[in-house]
Amino acid sequence: MAVHLFLVRPLMRLLFGVNVVGRENIEGLDRFVIIANHNSHLDIFLLFAALPAGQITRTHPVAARDYFEKPKILFKAVQFLMQPVWVTRGESGLGAIKEMQKRLDAGHSLIIFPEGTRGEPGKLEEFHAGIGLLARKNSDVPVIPVYLEGPERAFPREVAFPLPLWNHVTVGPPQRLQGESHDIADRLHDHLKALADEEQALRQRRTEGPHRPYCVAVIGIDGSGKSTVSKRLAGASQGESCFIGDNLELFKDGTLRDAQPLVTEQVRKWMSRQAKATKDLAHYKVPKLAELLLRDQLLSQVERWYRPDAIFMDGAPLLNMAGWAILYHEEYFNADVCAKALDILCGRDGGLQKDPIFAQFPELRLMSRLNLNHLHLPDAVIFLDVDPDVSMTRITSRGEKVQAHEDVAKLTKLQSAYRLVCEVLESRCRVCRLEGNKDLETLVSEAHSFVASRED
Amino acid sequence: MLDQSPSIFSLIGLLALSVVWGVAALSRGRWTMLDLARPLWGIFLAIAVAEWFSFGVALWILAVLSFCALREYLSLVDIRLQDRWGILVCYLSIPFMFYLIQINWYGFFIVSIPVYAFLLMPFFVALGGRSEGIVFSVGALDFGLFFYVFCIGHLAYLMFFSTRIAMLMVATVAVAGVIAQLLQRRNVIVSLLVQILASVALFAGLAGWTGIPAVHCVGVGILIPVLVCLGRFTLKQIEGDLGIRADRLQPGRGRLIEALKCYLFTVPITFHYLRWFLKWGDELW
Q1: Virtual CA dihedral for A232, A235, A236, A242, nearest 10 degrees?
Q2: Is B3 a residue whose pLDDT tops 60?
Q3: What's the mean pLDDT when you consider all of chain B?
Q4: Per-residue pLDDT tens over the stretch B117-165
Q5: B253, A161: Cβ pair inside 8 Å?
Q6: Omega before A71 within 30 of 0, i.e. cis
């Protein structure tokens, strides 16, 4: 206790500054369970700094043993300062819950971080169920929600050193809860969230960036239904949305509306017809590349002139180019090349100037030289994975002229290329892979729920 | 230091402020200390120590005050994760600058923050490696460094030349602040005129004690209330953006910054006015 009062507390105050709001909520209680958000190693010291002096030796945090086990001196120090209830991650929590119960029965108090581990800075994760179980069993022990603001700035995860910045410990009113355990956990989560919102509402924020539409690309081989799916998604979207496919359509709350025609769109359509009319792959390349570049240009113009809330694209110029490389240079095509090509086409090719990829794909060099390498990376990608045989029957049943690349062998290759592109993309944007052999309605509803689940 | 002998006023001021603080602390919330008086206590402590004990120690008391103000400012401003090295440089420039005051190297002191810290800090922010938002980060850190380190450093240098003038200036700022509070509902011009009258009277009345010539007593007497007014106006807008609100002036949420706002404009300009017209430091060249 002396160490806490005369060493840890003054040090925390001197270096970081500790401001405790609502100390009266904790004074006078002889037994309690504190729950708090967890962002930093400072959290536990802050909570101990907020405790009344008499409670310091009678309060124990719950800590992960594997994290503090090495080095031994750390384990000893933690054991000496706090006598924590040790939990081994990955094991069943029942043993730990029993130990916690034992401490509560002995008249001691607990500190629990119900998020389990240090989460994203400033974000409250879901609570683990253990706190609910404990609170339900001990309905006479008040649970005190405490919100810690500041440690996520003073000493967040993955930084080398702490910085002197103020910390605010907001102690909420004690809660006595009854009901189902997950229900209790949810209610405590809401309590802490309310405290967090209240604290964060007044923080200084920089102005937000300019309006950017949410861009969703539906990709897949020809005949996978991507055009229909993306158009239906645009139609089902709230607010202003735009569909870019074989033609350009603008929707407002689901109804089609007129839009000022764009010259680029007319040029693109003409180019698209040229590409479709070619007989072999060699002649297909240049008009198709031009068409894709124009399509990307169109995307910029749509963003600029129509300012929609969301854009749904039938294919994405960037991803189509990356995927189509397989038809021309299958021998070089792999995940690494694909990732590099995506970086180059997005204009993020720092340090790649002398890479062999430019020799393998001279088109990339030409495009970088011409400064045509600033294509849009969509915010979300939906990949429709269709059996090439199925798509081939769909293509023939359309009754249109079959294009140069539309046969089962080439479509199978393309399919595998798109799969690879999606794997690479997973670290760059949201990706969803849908089984395309299902009927259209299910596909659309699945795609819609994926788009709707984005975080704002 | 130019003053001949330590004065009893610093001890009286310190004692009076301590009594106020003690009463406020013992009253268990019935009375609270004026927020204005908290940094005033620190400054008077520094002045008393400088007069009766050692300027070297007093200097570092002001350095702690500067550290606390900068820490509070940085806690309020929206910083990015990548600015951490830059913030570290900000903190380290406090001992750097105060050491230059201690060894009385005026030429280096005056460029330490506006040249060296303002160039070094953006470099370290850039080391963070994220371009987006860097202009705002550097701007925000520059601002904090300038106001809460450089301007408060001027107070230390003023103390180096004359603790009596420093004391009188701090007291005048406090008086001007109190008058501004009292005449809040009146016309700004009326309030300002009353403040100027009071401050000129203070400076002229104590001219014999401070040793400032009569004409400059009037000059400084007019200057201080005007600068206090400008500082209050400017900092009020900035506090609005930082989320400092009168109803939650807690430690770490702008209590210190709020109380210091009257000094930030006043201290450096008064210092340079006096240094220029009274030819302080000229004997060095």
Answers
A1: 110
A2: no
A3: 89
A4: 999 999 999 998 888 889 999 999 999 999 999 999 999 999 998 889 9
A5: no
A6: yes
Q: How far apart are CA B255 and CA B250, in angstroms?
A: 6
- Sequence letter at residue B213: P
Domains of chain A as residue ranges with CATH: 2-200 (3.40.1130.10), 214-452 (3.40.50.300)
Position B278, amino acid: L
Within 8 A of B239 by CB-CB distance, chain A residues are: none
Distance CA A382, CA A424 (A): 14
User: CA-to-CA distance for A194 and A120, rounded, in angstroms?
Assistant: 18
Any residues with CB less than 8 A from the CB of A416 and at least 6 apart, and which?
A326
Chain B residues interacting with chain A (CB cutoff of 8 angstroms): 67-68, 71-72, 74-79, 81, 84, 87-88, 91, 133, 136, 241-243, 245, 248, 250-253
As a whole number, the mean pLDDT across chain A is 85
Complex ipTM, two decimals? 0.86
Task: Encode chain B in three state secondary structure.
Answer: CCCCCCCCHHHHHHHHHHHHHHHHHHCCCCCCCCCCHHHHHHHHHHHHHHHHCCHHHHHHHHHHHHHHHHHHHHHHCCCCHHHHHHHHHHHHHHHHHHHHHHCCCHHHHHHHHHHHHHHHHHHHHHHCCCCCCHHHHHHHHHHHHHHHHHHHHHHHHHHHHCHHHHHHHHHHHHHHHHHHHHCCCCCHHHHHHHHHHHHHHHHHHCHHHHCCCHHHHHHHHHHHHHHHHHHHHHHHHHHHHHCCCHHHCCCCCCHHHHHHHHHHHHHHHHHHHHHHHCCCCHHHC
Q: At what angle do helices B134-145 and B84-102 cross, to 10 degrees?
A: 20
CB of B177 closer than 8 Å to CB of B36: yes
* Angle formed at CA B39 by CA B183 and CA B164, multiple of 5 degrees: 85
Whether B253 sits inside 8 A of A166 (CB atoms) is yes
Q: Which residue in A19, A159, A166 is closest to B71 by CB distance? A: A166
Q: Can you read off the two tokens belonging to residue A23?
A: 């100390």
User: 3-state class of A215 per DSSP?
Assistant: strand
Nearest to B3 by CA among B208, B217, B140: B208
- DSSP character for A29? -
Please indicate whether, in this complex, the C-beta atoms of A19 and B251 are within 8 angstroms of each other.
Answer: yes
Give chain A positions within 8 Å (CB) of B78.
Answer: 203-206
Nearest to A19 among B76, B78, B252 (CB): B252
Of A163, A203, A204, the CB nearest to B84: A163
Give the nearest chain B residue to A204 (CA atoms).
Answer: B242
Nearest to B252 among A17, A156, A202 (CB): A17
pLDDT in tens, B209-257: 888 899 999 999 999 999 999 999 999 899 988 888 877 788 888 889 9
